[in-house]
């Protein structure tokens, strides 16, 4: 993708890197919403919102798009950027791409006749994001435990995107990988990949042997009963979005360390995360034939 | 699973091995339909169909169940075993499990009030079968090509069950694995697994570098145009069910070796194939709470 | 390496492929000793030995160089090619490279003032040859056993070149890999690579669980006592050079299948084997600064 | 190993964990040299050096044994423990095991007629230590770089113990692994393991593509010339013991981040490091038949 005109508006370090990468690919890129960044951006910010948007073909908002459904999520900006002002400036030939565009923002877009696409609805984006998430989880485990991951018993709860990729990486480092799932076909996949398959009803029996547990299931699975089976020095890393899958208070009271690690891609690998956003945007543009 | 009563009726070597394994697990097993086997069965066949079925809890037919929709597929038996006679003997408390139970047989089962389950509808069975299929494909490639699979350029067309497992095994041997797919999310998965992702529109550009191509897509993909891009000593192994994905005549006329390899599990690893059938049957029984 | 003049003299299919590859790299190549080949050589043979050798910079003999220490090992030639005639034609500026140049041939070379290098003394050649050897062993196992190598218990006796590479490949396919060794440091390596380490004094205890045993140790290790521990359907593949490591007669009498698989590179992957010979010859030429 | 009597004297956290593990295995363990530890030791320290040693069969000193060749390296102890006093108490039936027993200490041992074994002379110990070293290096890389190791270009300088194990782990995470070596046989090994082999004379050509460089070679290899080829955001992690292989001052002046990471096993995985020491001690005891 090149010779397109993009606007990157608000967002965290990933948005900055995304703007840099789009420019390096030969596109024209306007940015707005970073007046407070305090580091070298590698490009000049537009002075006005309108200036940033008016000539653009694709306007890229942050992930998540907003924390209040009214203003753009712009941690590096000193003033509020109202979403309706963004939409007011945009014409119907422009595309608005951002992450987690909720009902309220979508409704606003309709009113202003703005075409929007949610990055988090893109399956390839979700798959790619599992890579830095898995690496971030491994980094945390390495930092926390006094043993090597090599020859360590690691249990992954859930066999979705993160479970698959995390399992592969842990196996690659030399961990003994156990994956819990609850469908027979997942059991078959887990075995075929060379992991130890733990059917949900066998979970309790294997908990006491585990050194690290990675949870990816977004509902209570490590409850009082499960926690009571663990070794006291077992580490729990919960990667599941709210409400998570761990009774953190109970774990704490039992002296079991449990870490809730969210939004890892932007934290551990912002440049890679930006690259994955860029690739997904390119795919969207290709599909739309913009 | 143990202490159940099974009947294994007809089928190839897998059915024999299945019967042996069920018995070794502590079940009672009747067999019928092997009077011509000519090898040591390890157990005694029932003399009459009725004797074989009458006390059974689960009657297991072959994969595929029938080649003519009228008689049981029984290559080791000298006489025809009519499906309607099997069903006539069975009571409604007995379960009939077999592979590829077509509409006609299903209709017959309804008439006789027999409860049937098709093994090939079971996702875990399909996944597990991809393991011997992938190994069989590797064996054929090893036998046919005068180079090692190590450091060999292998292209897999399609990223379904076989594509995933075959890719993993080839990578494990040291091949340079390329996988073709046509969804962006599949591209993401392929990259995340460390394979070279080939988007469908890039396929033609990479064909000329390939040493072996494994097809898993059941429609014409290696047509005249694609074949013309290949090195003359490129080997094609088609694993797709009918109609396959290769223009075999054209390939032959161009001097390109193309092998259509079907039904590999029963051929290359009947004991493992039988084990996977057994596991799937156990899962069915668990689910039904029989 | 290019623009050199080579002679390839005698040898099996690998020598033919080697000549082809050297020519494809842009060298001039004379060949002699294939008048009986009966297949398309892709190049014209010299009519006389002298014509083939006289202009050459490097004369390449077969692997092994000779079976009788007097004539070149030339299975595709109808007449004998005497080594001393080869040496008589060669000048001291020419290099003679071949495999397994024994004392007698070396002595002859001294007499004729010919500089020789033995390919089998080259460590990189030995390492590279372990690749097709390991693949060949895997192919044989796949052909012989009715189970998949995936999830199969494979024991490798010895942790030398073949043991290491075979272990890696089997692990890559999904086998449960056990490797026997007798040094503590090898135990450490085996564990670090993620295999199951079997110390020599634990060998007897693990034999009964094995589905396939690959031996790489060239002295009797699978003797009557060890064989008596095996399952009757355990397959033995002996990759060790003479005298091998298996009591084959005893195995046969016990109904255990044991295959002595020698010289696999030339048999299973002659083109790759030729490439490895070529790379080694290039290394030799680089080192000598010829 | 059990029912032996050990003394653990001085050392860092690994020594504490080692004492705990030896006791957990069923041995009697005396400890001395931790009066300042400030954490729960899990066992009671002997009050006097003599009390700690007198009944012991094996006295285990730290790694390294001493920093001044006169006193035991005892970071958790408030007073000096003189090596000659340790040796004075020991009888000739006792064994002294520690790491890096230099000439001076060895000489002292001779005078006092004490039998000593240096842990760092044990090959298995060196191999096993490469596992936490490699993981520690990966942890540092993950913490430092804003990209994922997955699909990252990683160059390892040197193909010794650490190079081999680090290469395997990085490959397992999904890095593109390049390994530099200078022997043709190492090139062959590197290729056979599926890594990209970089011959020493090709090194300069590949430097500019690298994202992370891990050095294991203990002499200047990343000098001004090599550093000038790197991307400015390339990270260097030097794992080589003194004098290291990186011109750190030059790197700093060029804005290239270079980290000298020594003694990783004790830092990142003290429990695993202790386990490896214990296994090595067990091997020593087995060999000696003590």
UniProtKB/TrEMBL annotation, chains A, B, C, D:
Signal peptide per UniProt: none
Domain D-isomer specific 2-hydroxyacid dehydrogenase NAD-binding: from-to ranges: 148-240
GO molecular function: NAD binding
Matching Pfam families: 2-Hacid_dh_C, DpaA_N
InterPro entries, A to Z: D-isomer_DH_NAD-bd (IPR006140), DpaA_N (IPR031629), NAD(P)-bd_dom_sf (IPR036291)
Location of the Dipicolinate synthase subunit A N-terminal domain: 6-119
Residue ranges crossing the lipid bilayer per the database entry: none
Protein's name according to its UniProt entry: Dipicolinate synthase subunit A
